[in-house]
Amino acid sequence: MSSPLCHALLRNLNLFKPLSDAQLESALRGAQPCRLEAGAVVYHQGASAAHFFVLLSGCLKVAQVTPEGGQVVVRYVNPGDLFGLACAMRQPRYPATVLAVQESVCLAWPDALWERFTSHHPQLASLALQTMGQRLQDAHLRIQELSNDEVEQRVARAILRLVDSAGQPTADGIGIAFPITRQDIAEMTGTTLHTVSRLLSGWKQRGIVDSGRKRIVLRSPAALARVGAHAAAPTCAGCASCIDGAPGQAATTAGEP
Q1: Phi, psi of 184 (to 5 degrees)
Q2: Which of 133, 137, 213, 147 is nearest to 180 (CA)?
Q3: Which residues of 149-186 are buried (b: 16+ CB within 10 A; e: fewer)?
Q4: From-to residues of CATH 1.10.10.10 in the chain
Q5: Which of 14, 49, 110, 159 is the most exposed place for a label (fewest CB within 10 A)?
Q6: Helix (H) / strand (E) containing 218
Q7: What is the pLDDT of residues 29-49, one digit of tens each?
Q8: Phi, psi (5° rounding) for residue 80?
Q9: What's the pLDDT tens digit per position in 135-167?
Q10: CATH 1.10.10.10 fits 149-228, yes or no
């Protein structure tokens, strides 16, 4: 793991930017690169937690199977994210399945190296703790949304979070940078494929989003944020107050919630 290509990839990730060259070499000891084709499984829910990982490129989906046999999409893993941290929580098995949404590359360290990894590199230990704290906070937020919010709010907020974490400017607005289906959105928000399809179709008519096969583009972040904040959506069909400017201007609002 000392190739210039790997170092170049790592240097672009916030996780490793604080490290000196010597610290980076030390952190990489014992790491093995893994190249994943789209659809490949990194590990299965319930499997022995033998490794921890960082994603270098691509995108991964974290999903759990419920006792009733349904599937819940827990989150997406983006480049620079640590995952598979069962060892950090003293858990012997992975709590979810992780699979590649698109071609991806990650680094894997044996579980036995976790203590050395964190004790020798306090910056990485701190970021790992922040990662686990953020995921716990996100889980609490999703429980609150499922308990209190209407489905339209939940779907709107899920799309806004995806755009915030993995948005890319396009000619029409801000696209989610990886393939995502309506079924994925349904499994993230505790609703049905039919409901997500109906909502996206309605938002498309109003100029808020554009969607297609495994593709969602947000044309008006401000309008979708209002939907996420209020259960009752406007009944107009694409009025100026909903769209907040021409679609070509939407990319300039990428920083909005």
Answers
A1: -60, -45
A2: 213
A3: bebbbbbbbbbbbbbeebbeebeebbbbbbebbbebbb
A4: 149-228
A5: 14
A6: strand 215-218
A7: 889 999 999 999 999 999 999
A8: 95, -10
A9: 888 888 888 888 888 999 999 999 999 999 999
A10: yes
